[in-house]
C-alpha cells in the first residue's frame, strides 16, 4: 500500500497531474501499468519518479569544469524520448521551412514534428497561415508535399477547405443534424517569419483563431539578444535558395546537436579536409539565452592555393535551441534542421542558400556541395558510432572539455525544459 507521502517532494499536485496526463496520452510508451485509474497507485508514482530520476541525473548547477554529461538514457530510452517531445518541442518556436517556399500567394508546404502534422500556406491576400494538416471529417492527412493550391481538397471524401482554413464544402452531408461548416475548419497553429525562416509554435492542444493571432514576439522569444549578432553576421541577408539535402541518421537527435556543439574539438581528427580551410586557433564560442554562436576565421591560404574558397574569411555557426543550426560562411549559408524520429533515429534537413551573384556558377556550386556533403557524411559516421556507444553497458556519462561550453549550455537548457 502506497500513500500520498511517497510522492517525491518536488512533485507539486499540479506537476504530478500534468505528468500523469502526459503519461496517459503516451500510453504506447508507458504500457498498461501506468494507466491504472486508482489515485495514488504505486505503479503510477513509480513512472513519474522514474522519468524525474533520469532528468535529475544531470545537474545544471555544476560548472562545466566539474560537470558530467547527461546519462546515456537521455539518448536511448523511448520513455524519455516521448517525454522530451512533449516538453522540448511542443510549446516553443520551431523553424519548419523558409520564406521562399511560400513566396507567392497559394504556395504551401507540409511537414511533421513528433505527432504534429502541419501545413503552411500563403492565402490569396498574401497572409501566411499554418494549420494542423488533418481533415476534420475522418482525420485523413489533407495536403502532401509542397506546391501551389487554391484550396485544400481532402483526398479521402472531398471535403474542401480554403487557404485560410475554413471548411467551404462538406460532400454528401445533406440530412446530417447539428452540423455547421463554420465549426469544422482546420485547427490553426501559430506561425511567424524571421529573416528567411518560417517558424511554428507547436502545441499539442489545438488553439482558437484568437489565440493564434495574439503572438507577435518571435524575435525576442526565439533568438533573444542574439538577433542583432546574427543579422550582423549576414544571416538574414538576401540569399538565393539553391537546394535541399536530407539525411536519415541512426542516432538520437541530440547526438547530432552535441557533435555540432563541441567547439571544433572533433574537426582536426574527423574532418581533415575541412580543417585546411579553417583557422582553428581563432575559434570562439559566445553563449546567449537560447542560442550559441561558434565562430572561426578562414584560412586565407586555402583560397590562394586551390583557387577555390567556399568558406571565405570567417565562418559563423549558430545553434538555436533546440534543433536548428545556421552556418554562414563566405557566400554561403546552410541551415540544418534536426527532426527527431524516435529515440535512436533522426532526420537532418540541409537547406543551402547562396549569394545571388554566384547562383549561376554551376562549377562553384557543385564543388561546394560536394565538400559539404563529404563533411556531413563524416559526421554521420561519428554520430552513428556515438549512438552505438551510448547503448553499450560500458558507458553512462562522460565529461566536457572547456571548448565544449556550447554543448553544456544545450544540456542545461534541456534540463530546464525537462525538470518536473
Ligand atoms: S477524411 Fe477528409 S473528407 Fe473524409
Ligand atoms: Fe563535424
Description:
Helices cover 31% and strands 25% of the residues. It has 420 residues and is an alpha+beta fold. The chain folds into 2 domains: 93-216, Rieske Iron-sulfur Protein; 230-418, Naphthalene 1,2-dioxygenase Alpha Subunit, Chain A, domain 1, CATH 3.90.380. A 7-stranded antiparallel β-sheet has the order 11-17-16-15-14-13-12. The structure holds FE2/S2 (inorganic) cluster and fe (ii) ion (FE2). Fe (ii) ion binds next to loops. FE2/S2 (inorganic) cluster binds next to loops. It is found in: Plastid, Chloroplast stroma. It catalyses: choline + 2 reduced [2Fe-2S]-[ferredoxin] + O2 + 2 H(+) = betaine aldehyde hydrate + 2 oxidized [2Fe-2S]-[ferredoxin] + H2O. It comes from Arabis alpina (Alpine rock-cress). Its cofactor is [2Fe-2S] cluster; Fe cation.
Secondary structure blueprint with pairings:
Elements: H1 13-25, H2 27-30, H3 42-56, H4 73-76, H5 78-89, E1 93-98, E2 107-113, E3 116-122, E4 128-132, E5 146-148, E6 152-153, E7 160-161, E8 167-169, E9 190-194, E10 197-201, H6 209-213, H7 218-223, H8 227-232, E11 240-249, H9 253-260, H10 267-270, H11 272-275, E12 278-287, E13 291-298, H12 300-306, E14 314-320, E15 324-329, E16 332-342, E17 345-354, H13 362-390, H14 405-418
Antiparallel strand pairs: 1-10, 2-3, 2-5, 3-4, 6-7, 7-8, 9-10, 11-17, 12-13, 13-14, 14-15, 15-16, 16-17
Fe (ii) ion (FE2) is lined by residues 259, 266, 271, 379.
Organism: Arabis alpina (Alpine rock-cress)
Keywords: 2Fe-2S, Iron, Iron-sulfur, Metal-binding, Oxidoreductase, Transit peptide
InterPro entries: Rieske_2Fe-2S, Rieske_2Fe-2S_sf, Ring_hydroxy_dOase_asu_C_dom, Rng_hydr_dOase-A
